[in-house]
Specification:
This protein is α/β, with parallel strands linked by helices. It has one domain: Alpha-Beta Complex (Spore Coat Polysaccharide Biosynthesis Protein SpsA, Chain A). It contains 8 helices and 13 strands. Strands 1, 4, 5, 6, 8, 9, 10, 11 and 12 form a 9-stranded mixed β-sheet that branches. A two-stranded antiparallel ribbon has the order 2-3. Strands 7-13 form a two-stranded antiparallel ribbon. Helix 3 links the parallel strand 4 and strand 5. The radius of gyration is 16 Å and the shape is globular. The protein starts with a strand and ends in a 6-residue tail after the last helix. The model has no long low-confidence stretch (mean pLDDT 94).
Length: 238
């Protein structure tokens, strides 16, 4: 199974830390945030990647070339509309890939333990899946997290501002071409975020979830505080 890594945005909230370079290139351990994400997927048995770039994508491509893809098969795909919703990067990737093969999706600023990635890869077949965290009180920067309302193990609604929710979106998905079709419908209506595609699919095929396994960790590195938090707890994400 392949994995899509979306790395197209400009990450302006971290500019004071990144010097306006892509945040996925920030140092982390012996490499970068991006290399840590690739290595965690590798530990979960995933070795083929499609990295979608946009803002300063040349720097990400050079980082991967310089380090030989960190030992993985990595293809770069450019999204010239990177300044629009992040769903366009996912749509571009799904259109580029084999329509019969489900893929994993990760944001380029989400650190997720290998055990959690494995749980999503091996989750219930024939459905789209999102990794969710039920330990809401333990999450760093809850205000910024994307919330998920559930009906059983299925998503009923998703968004940052839900008044009622059961879990949090960890930023890792397993997707098939039904999501591509749903994302196309959402974009045609002017809704361009990944969550918009999820909402669209909820009303047709449905969207399942996988609970973050006990002992696994995740973190969305969106701010300088979150980056410092990640560095302080680096070993917990391996």
């Amino acid at each position: 199974m392949k994995a899509i890594i979306t790395a197209a945005g400009q990450s302006s909230r971290l500019w004071e830390t990144t010097g306006r370079e892509p945040k996925t290139l920030l140092p982390f351990g012996n490499g970068s945030i991006l290399s840590a994400i690739l290595e965690n997927f590798g530990a979960a048995g995933v070795r083929d990647f499609l990295v979608v770039v946009g803002y300063r994508g040349d720097l990400i491509a050079e980082h991967l070339r310089t380090h030989g893809g960190f030992g993985f098969a990595v293809e770069i795909l450019e999204n010239p509309e990177w300044h629009r919703g992040n769903g366009l990067s996912v749509l571009r990737a799904l259109t580029h890939l084999d329509p019969e093969e489900p893929v994993l999706l990760s944001m380029s600023d989400h650190l997720v333990s290998p055990g959690a990635l494995l749980a999503v890869r091996d989750g219930p077949a024939a459905t789209n899946l999102l990794l969710v965290d039920f330990q809401i009180g333990e999450v760093f920067d809850l205000d910024d997290a994307t919330k998920v309302l559930l009906e059983g193990e299925r998503i009923a609604d998703i968004g940052k501002d839900l008044p009622r929710y059961d879990a949090l979106d960890c930023g890792v998905f397993r997707l098939d071409q039904r999501f591509r079709i749903a994302m196309e419908r959402a974009v045609s209506q002017g809704r361009e975020g990944i969550s918009d595609g999820v909402r669209e699919l909820i009303h047709s095929a449905g969207f399942g979830t996988v609970a973050l396994p006990a002992g696994s960790q995740w973190l969305d590195i969106d701010t300088p505080d979150a980056y410092r938090h990640a560095l302080a707890r680096r070993a917990t994400f391996a």
